[in-house]
Amino acid sequence: RVVHEMGPEDGSWSNNYLANDETPFEIELTWNRGRTEPYENGGKDTHIAFTVPDFDAAHKLHEEMGCICFENEKMGIYFIIDPDNYWLEILPANR
User: Fold this and answer.
1) pLDDT at position 57, please?
2) Widest CA span of the chain, in angstroms?
3) Which of 2, 41, 68, 87 is the most exposed place for a label (fewest CB within 10 A)?
4) What whole-number distance in Å separates Cα of residue 32 and Cα of residue 19?
5) Neighbouring C-beta atoms of residue 92, cutoff 10 Å
6) Would you call 75 helix, strand, or coil by DSSP?
7) Is 3 exposed, middle or buried (0-12, 13-18, 19+ CB in 10 A)?
8) pLDDT in tens, 4-33
């Protein structure tokens, strides 16, 4: 079932979060209006996300490791990159 939806008022994209009663996990599906070309490596949209209890400590560690590949300060998230060039999203647990 859809438990949360978000996106801009202009409808150019939307994120829909799906969950069930069996697990505490959610799946986020992203829709981009007008996109017709296939995604390469998910276009960086196909990734796994992790919540961390101490966002600042995790960010500091990942910064020291040199693995942060993208930050979105407005959304309060960042991404690290794994050895296969997949992006892993990091967000605060209390979000």
Assistant:
1) 97
2) 39
3) 2
4) 21
5) 15
6) coil
7) exposed
8) 999 999 999 999 999 999 988 888 888 888
